[in-house]
Amino acid sequence: MSQLHLRIFDGTRQPFPLPAQFLITITDGYKKTQIKDFYPQNDILFDLPFFDNFGDQYTVLVWTKGYKQGGYFPVILSPAQPRTLDIMLIPQSPRFNFADASWPVVKAAYPFLASDVDDATAQQRYGDLMDDTPAALACFLNLTEAMSQISFAPTTPLDYIKQLIWTGTQAPAQDRFFAWCDVGIIPLIQAATTNHKFAVENDPGLLHPGATRSWKQIQFGEANVQLTFHENDKAVINGVNCCILEPDMDYYADPLAHALLEVLPNELTHMLTDPTMVYQLRWIAGQTARIPQFAPLYTIV
């Protein structure tokens, strides 16, 4: 037998508050349902069959009333040691809590937010973003937190961003932002493809008009960062040669799944990537990979 240690959390990144009833469904690699029942605990140990083949690639789904379903695949089990899986559930009607994203905190973490104007103007601009388009702020905080976890030893992509673009069609949105970025980051991303941290995205202009080159992180099954460059847009900022960087995060790593399950539905419904879903997927992916917790400067309640 194999053991699965399942822990359930909410959008505050804390153990899901009890009392609650969780519908837990666990399916093995043969598509046979091994578990489907309600449980009152948020921390549970399951004994599950060991097949010593693809049957050990389990799918785990968790649901409770008033919340969206959360889950993960593949959860590969082995009798050698218990496997811990952390699942986050977020409300059906989620709200953003930006209590930890005050202007002094955000300005210190991301100085490029205020690098082009005086502090009072920058603070007002940031406050307007929080009040008028909170989903865009959540997206920005998702992306910057995820980018802070990408290491170019000793730098991260954030060290190369010089100015955020605030106006026009490149203003912060709920699925991406645009910024002036030191072109020196590009060779570092190219080098990262050799150690399988990033992969080239061909024909980036198809989904990112005006883009010249693009790379997507391939570390996780879901919610990877994509860094797209518009090298024909040029500027010199404080003596540094810059081009426009367009970061975003896709739900799915697989290109076909991304096109069929994310891009095409979004085109048909005119909906953008949901930052709450990105938050949930990336947190689960990070916990599964056992990297430092994905903890942007907001929570979901």
Please provide a written account of the structure:
The chain has 301 residues and is α+β, with helices and mostly antiparallel strands. It folds into two domains: 87 residues, Carboxypeptidase-like, regulatory domain (Immunoglobulin-like, Sandwich), CATH 2.60.40; 199 residues, no CATH class. The strands form four sheets. It has a six-stranded antiparallel sheet. Strand 13 and strand 14 form a beta hairpin. Helix 2 packs across helix 3 and helix 3 packs parallel to helix 6. About 5% of the residues have low confidence.
Considering the chains and any ligands shown, give keywords for the structure.
four-stranded antiparallel β-sheet; Immunoglobulin-like; alpha+beta; 301 residues; 2 domains
Brief sketch in words of this structure:
With 301 residues, the chain is of the alpha+beta class. It has helices spanning 103-109, 119-132, 134-148, 185-192, 255-269, 275-289; strands at 2-9, 22-27, 33-39, 43-48, 57-63, 70-76, 83-88, 96-97, 161-164, 179-182, 198-200, 213-217, 222-237, 240-252, 299-300.
Radius of gyration: 20 Å
Oligomeric state: single chain
Helix vs. strand class: alpha+beta
Task: List segments where confidence is low: pLDDT < 50 over at least 5 consecutive residues.
Answer: 255-270
Total helices: the number is 6
Count of individual domains = 2
Order of helices and strands: EEEEEEEEHHHEEHEEEEHHE
Strand tally is: 15
Work out the helicity level: 10-25%
Measured between the Cα atoms of the first and last residue, the distance is: 37 Å
Query: Tell me about the biggest sheet?
Result: 6 strands, antiparallel
Adjacency order of strands in the biggest sheet: 9-10-14-13-12-11
Query: Which geometry do the CA atoms define?
Result: globular
Mean pLDDT: 93
Tell me the β content. 25-35%
